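To illustrate the input format used throughout this study, we show a single complete record. The first block contains the structure-token representation of the backbone; no residue identities are included at this stage. The design step must infer an amino acid for every position from geometry alone.
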């Protein structure tokens, strides 16, 4: 049972209400980490993380850091079907013989994954993803998909991969049919991630040969930076006289 105090909450966003209702529908012990929720919902990690903070602020979630028997510290998430304080409901009238109400049983769910830190995004990652449509028209991505995939492209760029090579790796031999282009790209960005590539060796400049000239004496072609006579023809009369 999901209460109207959650579904009609005026201070929670629509994303927080949807995430809260989904968590309350899960059995006890179900994983509700950010990565698990991101795989279930189309929203990205940033919006899911913000929704969890809203639910925690209004008393629907509680996250505790607990130490296991092995000494490892994990974060546990407790979900409350009804928070201790509900803004939409008036406080109960005083009872002459108050009987303390039992605190709501917290629903213990596993959340071993800490909140991920925001990943830096390379300036050219979004442009590279937006231009993939030039390789295949089916790769016209939504802005939400570009923002979700940009950190993966940044990892390739930071390891020294050339943007043109990234484009070829993401677009070569695409499946037929392709139901979800963003999912295909996300899989390739993770599985085909190259190691840190060494810097390309500096190449010496290539010396181009002299252009062809037409000999003034015999009309044969020869290479020289300047027009004149080839080596087989004698110099012109005025040059011999000067000598």
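Output of the design step:
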């Amino acid at each position: 049972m999901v209460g109207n105090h959650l579904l009609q909450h005026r201070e929670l966003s629509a994303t927080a209400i949807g995430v809260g209702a989904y968590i309350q529908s899960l059995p006890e012990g179900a994983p509700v980490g950010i990565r698990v929720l991101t795989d279930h919902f189309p929203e990205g990690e940033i919006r899911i993380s913000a929704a969890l903070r809203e639910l925690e602020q209004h008393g629907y979630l509680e996250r505790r850091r607990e130490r296991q028997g092995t000494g490892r510290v994990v974060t546990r998430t407790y979900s409350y079907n009804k928070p201790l304080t509900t803004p939409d409901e008036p406080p109960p009238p005083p009872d002459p013989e108050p009987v303390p109400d039992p605190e709501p049983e917290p629903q213990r769910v596993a959340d071993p994954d800490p909140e991920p830190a925001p990943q830096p995004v390379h300036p050219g990652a979004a442009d590279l993803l937006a231009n993939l449509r030039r390789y295949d028209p089916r790769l016209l991505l939504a802005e939400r998909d570009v923002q979700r995939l940009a950190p993966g492209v940044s990892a390739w760029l930071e390891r020294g991969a050339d943007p043109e090579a990234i484009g070829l790796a993401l677009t070569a031999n695409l499946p037929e049919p392709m139901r979800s282009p963003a999912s295909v790209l996300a899989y390739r960005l993770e599985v085909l991630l190259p190691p840190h590539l060494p810097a390309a060796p500096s190449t010496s400049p290539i010396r181009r040969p002299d252009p062809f000239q037409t000999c003034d004496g015999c009309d044969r072609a020869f290479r020289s930076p300047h027009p004149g006579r080839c080596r087989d023809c004698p110099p012109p009369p005025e040059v011999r006289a000067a000598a």
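Structural context for interpreting the output: Residues 4-109 form a domain with the Arc Repressor Mutant, subunit A fold (CATH 1.10.10). The chain is about 35% helix and 10% strand.
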